[in-house]
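Many introductory courses stop at the sequence. We go one step further.
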Amino acid sequence: MPRMSMREVATAQPDNQALIDATTDEDIARQIAEDPDTAPDQSDADPSEFILRSPGLEARTIRTHLGLTQEQFAARFGINIWTLREWEQHRREPDGPAQTLLRVIAHDPDAVAAALAARR
């Protein structure tokens, strides 16, 4: 397969649009079954097996909106700096309690900081 620039990809036209349009669901299923490198058909998968991300819950977005560095954000809200970096680089996703903490920080960061300071 020849290498293409992003510009070439954006403007590329399929070789045979009529052939693409004529492809049926059965053709696609057969191609998936014949080629182990093709992505598996997930249409029958149990939806509970998928991890869903909340599009508005981005640790980096919350942190930058507050004008804090990673170190400041982690220290202020009691989050391990390495965990925060993993979240921001999407190598890990915040779990349920962490999602709740981020949601509350996004809504009222001063209340969270005050609650954590009172505990110390």
